[in-house]
């Protein structure tokens, strides 16, 4: 038996159906040396080198595998594939021009790929998971909703528990092994099992738990903490020292705790620094308070995402203020921690060594920049995090590709990548079965529409027209499927189909009250009418709740705000709030007045704008000039004069509403006072 292993332990031969040579073995783990075992049946004792050809592109030259008895320099070799192995033998032909039929005894060599079944520890994995598999098949089909989902999550956790138990046992065997080669082999298997559990855990969060925005980040934090666990040993080492604050890894530990969102433990470590260093005690206390007050969505609370976003925004602004004021300027360590908590990408990338991998970077980045990230947006952040972390210095590994496919909610690609990377079918078979029980795989029409697209591409005359008709008939049952269809259309410059899909997704988002997503899709569709509709919903929500949702989107509209007047107004009105928050009152006042006088603001929103002007009118310094005050007065009189513009019944509504009448009187009084102050101020300036 000869087994070909890749440099990181996952390898063997290609999947069933591959031809032309052995696969060089892509990997999910690192650290194991190339290894080969061989057994010949009745062959000579001499050995020669046999190079196994690679079926796919490699990072380097394929590893040469030694097979005892093979004399490939003198004899031509032949091979044949079996169900799980390859047979290699010498022929009666030599490598000279003339063949010689020399009597001899050809030798057959069996080269196996699924050597995992011969491992005693992995056999335990196969045996124990069998019971879970059988139990899963007996789950009552009548169970629906939360009860069925809870059962499926429990089954998934049971599978992961078996993998972890096997991994821990393999780890102990690796430590106890006296032979370095055996130790490397077992360590390689530990890395493989760890990668398997990492992938399974992420699939559980995204596909089985189907965690929504808010709880999603909590699950991802647990996922990272479970699989990046070196910090626990470091924590024990530092706390076990005579003086933790003077330990060489003290600040390294605090930084890792902050990167993992373990802020309570980070605060405890900072308290030790404060106790032993009076000069930094005040700074440690302030940073500790920022850690303590960071808003987090706790499981079981009734707090809404909007409330969390509002609290988080205020907390983020407070962190920014301390950084800008130079509160931590005298302590590089504390200043760096504050930058991390602000989600500063440069500060995060400086901690590459502590983050270890791009998906840890991703989760930390989400924690401190986008804590209410929606599942549908995950792939954008995942791709950008991978690109930023690698920085063009290296290419993604097989594990990276699998995780990225999961973040893209491409289950088919996850299964495909795992089938290529792993040396046996246990993982793929059991994960696929579980996902099928979750109704995520429909075998009768699985991805057939995608196959049709490829065939239409190669029809020279009617392929394009047929593809357009085919696309229109694909049911967009899920947003993930819609994204795939959209990607296909964009790759082929099918503009009308792209607009149609974006409009459908925008309408679905509005029906589900996901205004940020609806606005994004309407902008992508370049649909001015729908963008106006969604902008009106944003403004109505603001009037009802007093705050905007999806601030990141509104703050970064850029040129897209020119799509419609209402969208332009939404972006500019948000800019007014930002200027007011930054205490740039003169700029805010000018912008507010221009929104009204340019007629870009909907008339129904004028009273809100005038009410926003009240705090500016009541400032100690004069913000509005006399001319600007006259303009505001004119707008107020137009609104209340009984001559509604465009047939809007605003005057009658205002006259009938006591609250609005009170607002009008307050505005008139404030405007009159401000006009008097502005005239006095401007007269004084002219006299001087």
Describe the structure.
It comes from Equus caballus. Belongs to the nucleoporin Nup85 family. Functions as a component of the nuclear pore complex (NPC). Residues 8-23 have a biased composition (Gly residues). The chain has 688 residues and is mainly alpha-helical. It contains 30 helices and eight strands. The protein has helices at 120-137, 145-176, 180-209, 215-227, 230-239, 250-259, 263-276, 278-293, 305-324, 332-341, 345-349, 352-355, 358-369, 378-390, 398-407, 411-421, 426-437, 448-457, 463-472, 479-491, 495-511, 515-524, 528-545, 551-555, 565-581, 585-597, 606-617, 626-640, 650-656, 658-687, and strands spanning 3-4, 36-37, 40-41, 47-51, 64-68, 75-81, 85-94, 108-112. The strands form three sheets. The chain has a four-stranded antiparallel sheet with strand order 3-8-7-6, with no helix packed on it. Strands 1-2 form a two-stranded antiparallel sheet. A two-stranded antiparallel sheet has the order 4-5. Helix 5 (230-239) packs antiparallel against helix 6 (250-259). It is globular, with a radius of gyration of 33 Å. The termini are far apart. Mean pLDDT is 76; it is low at 1-27, 29-60 and 643-648.
């Amino acid at each position: 038996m000869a087994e070909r292993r890749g440099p990181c332990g996952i390898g063997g031969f290609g999947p069933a159906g591959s031809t032309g040579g052995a696969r060089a073995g892509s990997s999910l783990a690192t650290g194991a040396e190339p290894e080969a075992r061989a057994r010949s049946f009745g062959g000579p004792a001499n050995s020669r080198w046999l190079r196994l050809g690679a079926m796919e592109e490699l990072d380097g030259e394929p590893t040469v595998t030694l097979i005892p008895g093979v004399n490939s320099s003198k004899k031509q070799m032949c091979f044949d594939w079996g169900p799980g192995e390859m047979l290699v033998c010498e022929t009666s032909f030599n490598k000279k021009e003339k063949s010689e039929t020399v009597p001899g005894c050809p030798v057959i060599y069996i080269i196996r790929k699924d050597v995992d079944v011969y491992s005693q520890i992995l056999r335990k994995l196969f045996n124990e998971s069998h019971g879970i598999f059988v139990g899963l098949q007996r789950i009552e089909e009548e169970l629906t909703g939360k009860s069925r989902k809870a059962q499926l999550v429990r089954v998934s956790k049971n599978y992961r528990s078996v993998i972890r138990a096997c991994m821990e046992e393999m780890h102990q065997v690796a430590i106890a092994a006296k032979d370095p080669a055996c130790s490397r082999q077992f360590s390689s298997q530990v890395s493989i099992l760890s990668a398997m559990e990492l992938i399974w855990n992420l699939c559980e969060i995204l596909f089985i738990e189907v965690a929504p925005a808010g709880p999603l980040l909590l699950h991802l934090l647990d996922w990272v903490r479970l699989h990046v666990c070196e910090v626990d040993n470091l924590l024990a080492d530092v706390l076990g020292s005579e003086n933790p604050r003077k330990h060489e890894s003290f600040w390294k530990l605090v930084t890792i705790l902050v990167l993992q969102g373990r802020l309570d433990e980070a605060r405890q470590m900072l308290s030790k620094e404060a106790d032993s260093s009076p000069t930094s005690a005040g700074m440690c206390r302030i940073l500790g308070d920022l850690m303590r007050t960071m808003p987090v969505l706790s499981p079981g609370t009734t707090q809404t995402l909007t409330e969390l976003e509002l609290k988080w925004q205020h907390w983020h602004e407070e962190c920014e203020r301390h950084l800008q004021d130079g509160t931590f300027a005298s302590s590089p360590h504390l200043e760096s921690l504050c930058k991390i908590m602000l989600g500063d990408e440069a500060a995060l990338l400086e901690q590459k060594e502590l983050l270890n991998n791009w998906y840890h970077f991703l989760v930390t980045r989400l924690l401190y920049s986008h804590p209410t990230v929606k599942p549908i947006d995950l792939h954008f952040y995942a791709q950008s995090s991978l690109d930023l972390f690698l920085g063009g210095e290296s290419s993604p590994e097989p594990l990276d590709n699998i995780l990225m496919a999961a973040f893209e909610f491409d289950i088919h690609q996850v299964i495909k990548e795992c089938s290529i990377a792993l040396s046996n079918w246990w993982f793929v078979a059991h994960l696929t079965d579980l996902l099928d029980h979750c109704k995520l795989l429909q075998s009768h029409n699985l991805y057939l529409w995608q196959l049709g697209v490829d065939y239409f591409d190669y029809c020279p005359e009617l392929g394009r027209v047929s593809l357009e008709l085919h696309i229109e008939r694909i049911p967009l049952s899920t947003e993930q499927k819609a994204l795939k269809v959209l990607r296909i259309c964009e790759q082929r410059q099918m503009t009308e189909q792209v607009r149609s899909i974006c409009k459908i997704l925008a309408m679905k988002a509005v029906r589900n009250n996901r205004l940020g997503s609806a606005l994004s899709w309407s902008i992508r569709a370049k649909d001015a009418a729908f963008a106006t509709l969604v902008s009106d919903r944003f403004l109505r929500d603001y009037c009802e709740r007093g705050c905007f949702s999806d601030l990141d989107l509104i703050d970064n509209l850029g040129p897209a705000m020119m799509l419609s007047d209402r969208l332009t107004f939404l972006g500019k009105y948000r800019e007014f709030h930002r200027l007011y928050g930054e205490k740039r009152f003169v700029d805010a006042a000018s912008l507010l007045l221009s929104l009204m006088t340019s007629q870009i603001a909907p008339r129904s929103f004028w009273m809100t704008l005038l009410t926003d002007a009240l705090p500016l009118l009541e400032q100690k310094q004069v913000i509005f000039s006399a001319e600007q005050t006259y303009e505001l007065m004119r707008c107020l009189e137009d609104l209340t004069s009984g001559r509604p513009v465009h047939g809007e019944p605003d005057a009658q509504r205002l006259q009938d509403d006591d609250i609005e009448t009170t607002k009008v009187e307050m505005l008139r009084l404030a405007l009159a006072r401000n006009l008097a102050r502005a005239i006095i101020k401007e007269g004084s300036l002219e006299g001087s």
